[in-house]
Amino acid sequence: MKKVLVLFSHPNYEKSRVNKVLINHIKDIENVTVHDLYEEYPDFHIDVKFEKELLNTHDVIIWHHPFYWYSCPPLMKQWIDMVLEFNWAYGPEGKALHNKICLNAITTGGSKEVYCSAGYNSFTVAQFLRPFEQTANLCGMNYLPPFAVMGTHKLSDEKLENYKLNYGKLIDLLKSDVLLNNVEKTSFINDYPQLKNE
Ligand SMILES: Cc1cc2nc3c(=O)[nH]c(=O)nc-3n(C[C@H](O)[C@H](O)[C@H](O)COP(=O)(O)O)c2cc1C
């Protein structure tokens, strides 16, 4: 069974509605480590050695964060900058992350409809996430499409409940390694048949 590391980054968790529900649902699943970066490093001083050990002992890495200005909150970026060192994560000797699975789990205020060339955000979520995709590629990881909860401002409790259950299902599928064959063909991992909202 694969081990899943959820690198969670939310600058204002006390006021969170959506991420709080998602994280509470998955935090006690077996073989899942939820690592809350803002709780661990409020001063932004990341313990790089510890983070590398965590990465070494997990097979699936999830960058879980709300979408802030079309990207991740700053501590998530700091984590990427500090932890993914040359000749460890990438470069001629950098093979530590090779063949691990990696994806973003994001929540967005904007709805799916506004993330396209004709919508007011002009670009797709996949386009905004390109730096994450290429970071994973450079590190030899297998980058999967994002899990996305979109339109959070108008999201009903019922729909949020569905997303929560699907996030739990996704984690179970990632743990048992059954996802990889079809998933790369979908824009969002949510659209994988076994995760479609009933
Ligand atoms: C500083 C800031 C920047 C944001 N930028 C975006 C954005 O670029 N795109 C978007 O769709 N939503 C954006 N939002 C909305 C958040 O993504 C949304 O409120 C969040 O995902 C809801 O999750 P939560 O209830 O766990 O906080 C932004 C919110 C804040 C506070």
Topology summary:
Elements: E1 4-8, H1 18-26, E2 32-36, H2 37-40, H3 48-56, E3 60-66, H4 74-83, E4 101-108, H5 125-128, H6 130-138, E5 142-143, E6 147-150, H7 157-176, H8 180-183
Parallel strand pairs: 1-2, 1-3, 3-4, 4-5, 4-6
Helix pairs in contact: 1-7
The protein binds flavin mononucleotide.
Descriptive notes:
The chain is of the alpha/beta class. It has a single domain, classed as Rossmann fold (3-Layer(aba) Sandwich). The protein is built from 8 helices and 6 strands. It starts with a strand and ends in a 15-residue tail after the last helix. The model has no long low-confidence stretch (mean pLDDT 96). Flavin mononucleotide binds next to α1 and β4.
CATH topology label: Rossmann fold
**What characterizes the major β-sheet?**
6 strands, parallel
| Distinct small-molecule ligands in the complex | flavin mononucleotide
Overall pLDDT score: 96
Give a count of the beta strands, DSSP E runs of length 2 or more.
Answer: 6
Rg from Cα: 16 Å
In the CATH hierarchy, what is the architecture at level 2?
A: 3-Layer(aba) Sandwich
The fourth-level CATH homologous superfamily is: Flavodoxin domain
Brief write-up:
The protein is an alpha/beta fold and 198 residues long.
Give structural attributes.
198 residues; alpha/beta; Rossmann fold; 6-stranded parallel sheet; 6 strands; 35% helix; globular; binds flavin mononucleotide
